[in-house]
Design a protein that fits this description.
Layout: E1 4-6, H1 13-19, E2 29-33, H2 39-43, E3 47-51, H3 77-86, H4 91-94, H5 98-108
Parallel strand pairs: 1-2
Antiparallel strand pairs: 2-3
Length: about 110
């Protein structure tokens, strides 16, 4: 199955158990949507992967078919920040708490 499941989906539950037990790994990995327990998770549309293997994703066979690596040159970061601000993505929208809002206000003044 391809896609993202809810954490309580019948296909995801056995992997939760396997990830925290001494069972022999099956090599399965599934993407799950998180239960939103705070506003940050909701704003960031949190999703996670559950693994019953210790093999890193980038070392799995066929990893190039499902992983994309983005490298941002240090010289491009300020321009990227500017573009993100222009489309409404700021620290305070990703991390909606008073600390982030205060840092953003200090930076803008």
């Amino acid at each position: 199955m391809n896609g993202v499941l809810t954490a309580s989906h019948s296909l995801a539950l056995p992997l939760f158990r396997a990830a925290f037990s001494e069972r022999a790994p099956t090599g399965k990995i599934v993407g799950v949507l998180a239960h939103e327990i705070d506003v940050r998770m909701m704003v960031q549309q949190s999703a996670f992967t559950i693994h019953d293997t210790a093999t890193p994703l980038e070392e799995l066979p066929g990893a190039a078919d499902f992983l994309i690596k983005f490298e941002v040159a240090a010289s491009a970061k300020e321009e990227m920040r500017r573009q993100l601000r222009e489309i409404g993505i700021r620290q305070s929208t990703l991390f909606p708490d008073l600390g982030s809002l205060a840092r953003e206000l200090v930076d803008e003044m």
